[in-house]
């Protein structure tokens, strides 16, 4: 299969390209497309066989549920059995945006995409290309991240093509993603808003809207042995090709901690790659070549780190690193989402600075 990449710069002027993409989706094919979080691999969300193609293209386990992307309120009503007051409040505050709401599903939603659950994740992206594609398709689009399952999610069309070239007919290139980490997933089926996956809509933002007593964290986020209720909760994700270990602790101690660990590993004959802040990398220039460093932004600049961590992880795919070291950050605000992804990428291997 030849994969065509189409650059979308002006949504209103490129309706023909979007119409073509919509036709591919309606006919059961797959299209990769940008969102404000990461690139998604889309299929007609009401077509079970089309959604099976997503699992095949990604090598994704069939019991890992998919999120349905919608363009408007009427599409939400098409697939949700009921829209609870809690979901109404979150939709009014954060949709369109980087949030996925879990609700009870209607029978129109194929069992294939729900992982055997009675619920479905619904997301209304704010990215113009994504919204135009959903409208062109005329159906909700089922879409996980557009990568081989378990690999870091792509934040550009180029990174998407690295995994999916030859596997799908079309990639829409809408430029780099804004947030760089997947949407916040919130379960709205109970009395509280339960965060199943942290993202750019932070716990603090939810608390400000709903009150402290109305927001909870799912036990699976802290390692409890419970049935996963959302994409990305059951399987290892975001892993680079070389094993990654995180160094966590006070920012002021990071440089010395990295210097010690790099020297130790090099003494064992290992080729070390480091993904870290500008400040840490500046302290490693004497002992580590530039090609084995990936700069994800300044310490404390959480939006920059979130936007760059996946590309930083992927940057080592073609480099001769035996092991990787990554710098941890705060677990407050957007840092919770960043650390969630980094812990999964590292398999929870950590060193305290």
What do you see in this structure?
The chain is α/β, with parallel strands linked by helices. The chain has eleven helices and 16 strands. The chain is globular, with a radius of gyration of 20 Å.
Distance between the termini: 48 Å
For the sheet with most strands, the description reads: 11 strands, mixed
Strand order of the largest sheet: 1-8-2-3-7-4-6-5-9-10-11
Average pLDDT confidence is: 94
Helix content: 25-40%
Task: Identify low-pLDDT runs.
Answer: none
Describe the global form: globular
Question: Any idea what the radius of gyration is?
Answer: 20 Å
Q: Helical segment tally?
A: 11
Beta-strand content estimate: 15-25%
Category by helix and strand content: alpha/beta
The total of beta strands comes to 16
SSE order in H/E notation? EHEEHEHHEEHEHEEEHEEHEHEHEHE
Write the layout of secondary structure elements.
Blueprint (H helix, E strand, L loop, with lengths): L3 E4 L7 H12 L4 E3 L6 E5 L3 H11 L8 E3 L3 H7 L5 H10 L4 E6 L14 E5 L4 H10 L3 E2 L14 H8 L5 E4 L10 E4 L5 E5 L5 H8 L4 E3 L26 E5 L2 H17 L4 E5 L1 H5 L10 E3 L6 H13 L8 E5 L7 H12 L3 E3 L1
Parallel strand pairs: 1-8, 2-8, 4-6, 5-9, 10-11, 12-15, 12-16, 13-14, 13-15
Antiparallel strand pairs: 2-3, 3-7, 4-7, 5-6, 9-10
Helix pairs in contact: 1-5, 10-11
């Amino acid at each position: 299969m030849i994969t065509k990449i189409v650059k979308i710069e002006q949504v209103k002027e490129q309706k023909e390209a979007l119409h073509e993409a919509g036709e591919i989706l309606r006919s059961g094919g797959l299209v990769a497309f940008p969102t404000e979080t990461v690139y998604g691999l889309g299929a007609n969300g009401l077509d079970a066989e089309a959604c099976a193609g997503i699992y095949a293209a990604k090598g994704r386990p069939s019991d890992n549920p998919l999120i349905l992307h919608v363009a408007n309120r009427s599409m939400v009503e098409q697939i949700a059995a009921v829209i609870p007051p809690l979901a109404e409040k979150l939709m009014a505050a954060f949709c369109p945006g980087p949030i996925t709401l879990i609700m009870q599903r209607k029978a129109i939603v194929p069992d294939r995409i729900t992982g055997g659950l009675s619920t479905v994740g619904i997301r209304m992206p704010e990215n113009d290309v994504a919204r135009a594609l959903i409208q062109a398709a005329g159906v909700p689009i089922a879409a996980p991240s557009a990568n081989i399952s378990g690999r870091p999610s792509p934040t550009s069309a180029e990174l998407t093509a690295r995994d999916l070239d030859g596997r799908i007919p079309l990639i829409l290139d809408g430029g780099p993603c804004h947030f760089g980490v997947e949407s916040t997933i919130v379960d709205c089926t109970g009395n509280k808003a339960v965060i199943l996956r942290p993202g750019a809509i932070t716990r603090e933002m939810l608390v400000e809207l709903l009150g402290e007593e109305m927001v909870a964290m799912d036990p699976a986020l802290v390692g409890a042995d419970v049935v996963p209720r959302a994409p990305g909760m059951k399987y290892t994700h975001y892993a680079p090709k070389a094993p990654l270990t995180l160094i966590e602790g006070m920012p002021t101690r990071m440089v010395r901690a990295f210097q010690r660990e790099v020297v130790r590993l090099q003494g064992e004959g290992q080729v070390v790659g480091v993904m870290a802040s500008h400040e840490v990398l500046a302290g490693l220039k004497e002992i580590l070549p530039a090609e084995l460093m990936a700069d994800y932004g300044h310490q404390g600049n959480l939006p920059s780190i979130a936007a760059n961590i996946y590309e930083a992880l992927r940057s080592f795919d073609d480099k001769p690193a035996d092991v990787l070291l990554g710098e941890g950050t705060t677990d407050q605000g957007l840092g919770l989402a960043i650390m969630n992804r980094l812990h999964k990428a590292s398999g929870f291997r950590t060193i305290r600075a």
